[in-house]
Amino acid sequence: MEYRGPYRVRTVEKPMPQILHPEDAIIRVTRSCICGSDLHLYHGMVPDTRVGSTFGHEFVGVVEEIGPLVQKLKVGDQVLVPFNIACGKCNFCKQGLFGNCHESNPMATAVGGIFGYSHTAGGYDGGQAEYVRVPYADVGPTVIPPDMDPDDAVLLTDVVPTGYQAAEMGGIKEGDTVVIFGAGPIGIMAARCAWFFGPSRVIIIDHVDYRLEFAKNYAYCEAYNFKDMEDPVVFLKKTTDWYGADVCIDCVGCEAEGNSLQTFSGKVTLMQAGTATALQWAINSVKKGGIVSIVGVYGPPFNLIPIGNVLNKGLTIRANQASVKRLLPKLIAHVQEGRLNPKGLITHRVPLEEVADAYRLFSSKLDNCIKTVLIPSAKS
Amino acid sequence: MKKQHQDYKNIPGWGMDADPENEPNYPMKNYTGDDHHRSDYKRSAPQPKDVEILMSNERPKISAVFGNSVPPSGLSGMIRRYAFKHSEDRYRHWLPLIFADRINMFEGVVDDLRKGYFPNIIAERGWKMEVKHNPKGFAVKIATAAAVGYMIFLMLKKKK
C-alpha cells in the first residue's frame, strides 16, 4: 500500500524490507487492519505524511527473518505486533510507558515511534503490506497463543488495548456513569471494556445510526445520536440527574462533527489541529471533580478546548497512546476466557490489492463498515 | 430516564478489574524513580544512518532506531529541512510540514508522469465503492463539485 496524497492510496511493488539493526525482525504480514486513526493520515491531517509512505500499525504475521541480537523470536513464529515501537530500555519503557519510548522516533519528542504513521511518528513503513521491518523485535512482538484466532490477535495490536486503556484511565468506580464519545471501533471497545471496572451505566454518543445500533448490541451500552438532540451536553446533564457523568472518554479525536465553529476552524481553515468537538463535550459533560480520558488522536500544534472549565470544575485529564505491551497479558486472558470477542468488530475482509476501495469504504462509512481487515494475497 | 441494562452486573467480566487504587496515575506508570536519571540508561546500538533523517531539535541525538522510508527530496524536502530547524512548539515547524505535504502530492504526480505512469485517480480514491454503496450521495457530490467549478469558471471569465 502506498499513500499518494489526501484520499489517494494504491498498491505498488516495493523492495523487500531489510534488517537495518541487529534487534530487527522481518515479518510476513498475514492480516492488517485499517485503523480509524489511519483515516487522519488518509485525509491529510497529520503533518509530515510523505507521498510514498506505507500505512498500517495493526498487523499480525509470521517471523521471516531475525537480526543477530534477537533472542525471544524464531523464524516461523506467528506474532502480533503492538502498534508502538518500544526499546524496553529507556526510562519510559522501564516504567511501563511503552507508548512513550524515547529511542524509536528521532523526528518528534512528543510521540514515540509508531508503524506506518507518518514521519512525525518516526518514518517507519507500516504493515499494510506483504512484509514489514519490525525494530526491537524482542520487546514488542508477542507470540500468538496457538488457540487464538488471528482475527482476534490482530485486534489486540491496537483496538482492544486502546479501548481498554481508555476505560482504565477513566478510573471508573463501581456504580459510575461512563460516557463515551465516538462509536467507531475504539469507542465501541472502550464501552465494552468499561464494564470490567464496575460502572452501572455506559453511554455512547455518535451521529451514525448503524454504528450506534452495533455498539448497543456489542457493548451492552446505551447509545444516542447527538443529531437527535438540541444540545448533547444538556442531554447528558439531564440523564445524570443534572449532575454530569462521572467519567467521559473521548474516542473521536481530530475529525469530530457536531460544532460548526470547531469544523470551520479545524477542518475548513486548518487554524487548529482538526476539530476538538468531542473533547469539548467531554469536558463540559463530566461532573465537577470528574475524569476525562482521551484516546482520540489529535495532531500538532494545538486545539481549542475550554481549559477554563477544566480548572473551575477541578477535572483530571488522563491521556496516552495505549501501552499495548503492558496490557497484553490481561487482554489475552479476557479473550481466551471468552469475556471479550474482538473479531466481532470485523465487518469487512478485503484483499490488500483493493486497499483504495477499503479506505474509501471505511472513510465514507459505506456498507455499514465498522472494521476492515486487509489480507495480503496468497502468493506472499 | 430508564437505564437499559438493569442487570448490568451479569455482563461478562463486570467489575472484575475494578481497582480502588486507580488514582490518578497508577497503573499507567510503574514509577521507579528512573526519571531522575534522565537520559542515563543503556541504549541499544545505533542503527546505521543510510538516508537523510530530519531530527527534532528538542533532542540531543538521533534515537537508536528510526524509519528510513521516503527521505526528504525536492522542493518539499527543502521545506521540511526548514521546518526541522524549529522546535515542535513552533508554528514554523508544523505549518511548513503541512505545506510540504501538499507540495509533495504534486511532486508525486509529476514523478509518476516522468516514469511514464498515468495515475488512475478514480481507482486510487476508491470511487468504485461510492458508486456501489452510495450512488445517490455520490451523484450529489459530483453535481455540487461541477456546479461550484462552473461558477468559478464563470466568475473568472467575467473578470477577464
TrEMBL record, chain A:
Keyword tags: Metal-binding, Oxidoreductase, Zinc
One Gene Ontology term of the molecular function aspect: zinc ion binding
Ranges where the Alcohol dehydrogenase-like C-terminal domain occurs: 185-255
Domain called Alcohol dehydrogenase-like N-terminal: residue spans: 22-139
Presence of keyword Zinc: yes
Keyword Transport applies: no
Named cofactor requirement(s): Zn(2+)
PROSITE patterns in the record: ADH_ZINC
Pfam family, one: ADH_zinc_N
Family membership: Belongs to the zinc-containing alcohol dehydrogenase family.
PANTHER family: DEHYDROGENASE, ZINC-CONTAINING, PUTATIVE (AFU_ORTHOLOGUE AFUA_2G02810)-RELATED, ZINC-TYPE ALCOHOL DEHYDROGENASE-LIKE
Name by which UniProt lists this protein: Threonine dehydrogenase
UniProtKB/TrEMBL annotation, chain B:
Keywords for this protein: Membrane, Transmembrane, Transmembrane helix
Basic and acidic residues bias (residue ranges): 32-43
Designated name of the protein: Uncharacterized protein
Transmembrane portions of the chain: 138-156
Domain of life: Bacteria
Organism: Pedobacter xixiisoli
Region feature (Disordered): 1-46
